[in-house]
Amino acid sequence: MPLGGFTIKLARSGVQLEVAQDDTILEVLQAAGYDVPSSCEQGVCGTCETVVLEGLPDHQDLILSADEHAENRSMMICCSGALSSLLVLDI
Q: What's the distance, Cα to Cα, between the start and end of the chain in Å?
């Protein structure tokens, strides 16, 4: 599972957070005090689906179709990482 080594920007507040090599986006958000929906934390339930406004996700979920992965409009933040250095999320 590709994790960490990129920055997330929360579009609603402008806050930027670093996602370290061994962390998930979900873990970083929770550690920073954000209450984001999650359940399985393995990319199979879809609870943590988050809209991507900018950047290129590295999709590791089992929910979205191949076409949805290619559109890069949303991602599961519990298990997916980034192929770009910055992801802007609708949070």
A: 23
| pLDDT for 1 beyond 60 | no
Domain ranges for the chain, please list them.
6-89
Checking if the pLDDT of 4 tops 80, the result is no
Task: Give the CATH number of domain 6-89.
Answer: 3.10.20.30
Q: Using CB atoms within 10 A of its CB, is residue 21 exposed (0-12), middle (13-18) or buried (19+)?
A: exposed
Three-state SS for 40? Answer: coil
User: Mapping DSSP to helix (H, G, I), strand (E, B) and coil, where does residue 35 land?
Assistant: coil
Residue that is written with structure tokens 């809209």 in the block: 51
Q: How far apart, in whole angstroms, are the C-alpha atoms of residue 57 and residue 24?
A: 12
Q: What is the pLDDT of residues 65-79, one digit of tens each?
A: 999 999 999 999 999
Total-model pTM: 0.93
